[in-house]
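COMPLEX REQUEST
Ligand: (2Z)-2-iminopentanedioic acid
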Amino acid sequence: MTEIMELITSRDPGEKEFHQAVEEVLETVQPVLDRNPHYRKLAILERITEPERVIMFRVPWVDDQGQVQVNRGFRIEMNSAIGPYKGGLRFHPSVNLSILKFLAFEQVFKNALTTLAMGGGKGGSDFDPKGKSDDEVMRFCQSFMMELFRHIGPNTDVPAGDIGVGAREIGFLFGMYKRLRNEFTGVLTGKSLGWGGSLIRPEATGYGCVYFAAEMLATKDESLEGKTCLVSGAGNVAQYAVEKLIELGANVVTMSDSSGYIYDEEGIDEEKLVFVKRLKNVRRGRIREYAEEYKEAVYTEADPSADHNPLWDHKADCAFPCATQNEINGKDANNLVHNGVRLVCEGANMPSTLEAIDIFLEHQLFYAPGKASNAGGVAVSGLEMAQNSMRLNWPREEVDYRLQNIMKSIHRTCLDTSAEYGESGNYLAGANIAGFVKVVDAMLDQGLV
Ligand code: NDP
Ligand code: 2IT
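STATUS: Structure written out below.
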C-alpha cells in the first residue's frame, strides 16, 4: 500500500488533493486486498488510481470589454467499468488537475454505491463565474463546449453541475452541444424542467444528505427533530440541506460563503431560507447581507490565515459541511467534538482532512463520508438519464421516493459492509470497500482494460 502511494506521489508530485483521496481509500480497503492476493498481480490499485483518459484544452472567450480571455478546460474520464463516465463540472479559480482527479476518483466509488449504472468522471475550468455578466458566462460556456462536445455523449460521458455550475451554465452548455451535434439527447443532467430536467434534481444532494443523517440517527432510535445543526456553504447543496433540516424540525444556526459565515441562534426558518435563495440564486450576493436583514444574526468575516474555522466552534448536535474540500481540519474536528457534535454528515466532497476523520472515528461520532452521504445528487442525475431515455417525466413524489430508497440502501450497504469486514459502524470503511469491490469485480470481468 505504501508502495502504491509512493508510485502515485512520485508520478504526480504536486497533486496533494488527489493523493489525499487515494490515501483515504487505500487505508480502508486493505482487508479486501488481504482476502484477494491475486489483485496484486492484476495491478488493481495501479489501474484504479490511473484515469482512463484525461482531456485538457484551451478555452478562449471574449469579455464584455472586448478583451480576449483564456481559461483552461478539463475532463477526467476516470473509470467506465460499470457505466458511462458520470460526474459534475466545476467552475472555480482553484480548479486544477489535482482537484479534478480527486473529485473523479471519489465519484467512481460514489456512483457505484448508488446502485445505478454510472462510471466516474469530473471536469471543469479555472474560470470564475463570480462577477461575470450572463453574456460572459454564456460565451465562456459556448467556447468550453466547442471542445468538450467531441468527448461526451449520452452513452459515453454525461457531465452535470458542481461548484459554480448550476442551471444557468447547464443551459448554455446544452444549447451549444445540441447545435454542434444536431441532436437532442440527455448528454447533461441538471437540465431545467421544461427541456429534459428531472423534478427533485436541484434538491437531491441536500435532501439526500439529510435523509442519510436521519438513517444514521434512526439506528439509535433518534431523529433530527430538535437537533441544533451547523451547516456550511450557501449554494445548491447547503440550501436544500437546510430546507430538509427545517422540514424535519431541526434548528439550523449557521450558513456561509467564501467571504464569511452567519450565526443565527434563533435558527434559520423557512422565510429566512427564502431570503438566502433569492440572495444567492437571483441576486448572486454575499451571505453577509443575511445579518443586515436579520439583526439577531452575527456575521463573521473569513480569515484565510486562521488555523481553524470559527463556524465549527459553536454548541451543536450535528454538522453538515456543504461548501468545499478540506473545510474541516484537525482543530475544527476537535472543536466539534468538544462542542457536543455527535454526527458529521458530508454534503461536500472531501470536506474533512485525514486528521479530522481520524478524530471523528476515534470519538465514535456518526461520520458519513461524502461519497456515501452526498450521492443523492448523482443518483437523481441517474434517474434523469433514465427518464430522458424513456422520454417521459416522473412526478415529484416518485423521484423523491426513489431518492429516499437509494439513500437508505447506501446507508444499509455501508453498515453491512463495515460489519462484514470487521469495522462495524465505520461508514467510511463500509462505503470505500463496497464501492471498491463493485468496481474492481466489473473491471476484472472485462479483462485487461
Ligand atoms: P455551489 O457553487 O452552489 O455553492 C458552493 C458554496 O460553497 C458557496 O456558498 C461557496 O461560496 C462555497 N465555497 C466554494 N468554494 C469555497 C472555498 N474555496 N472556500 C469557502 N467556501 C467555498 O456548489 P454546490 O453547492 O453544488 O457544491 C458544494 C459542495 O458539494 C462541493 O464540494 C461539491 O463538490 C459538492 N457536491 C455537489 C453536488 C451537486 O449536485 N451540486 C453533488 C455532490 C457533491 P462562494 O459563493 O463565496 O464561492
Ligand atoms: O459531486 C457530485 O456528485 C456532483 N457534483 C453531481 C454529479 C452528477 O453527475 O450529478
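REMARKS: The longest helix spans residues 396-420. The radius of gyration is 21 Å.
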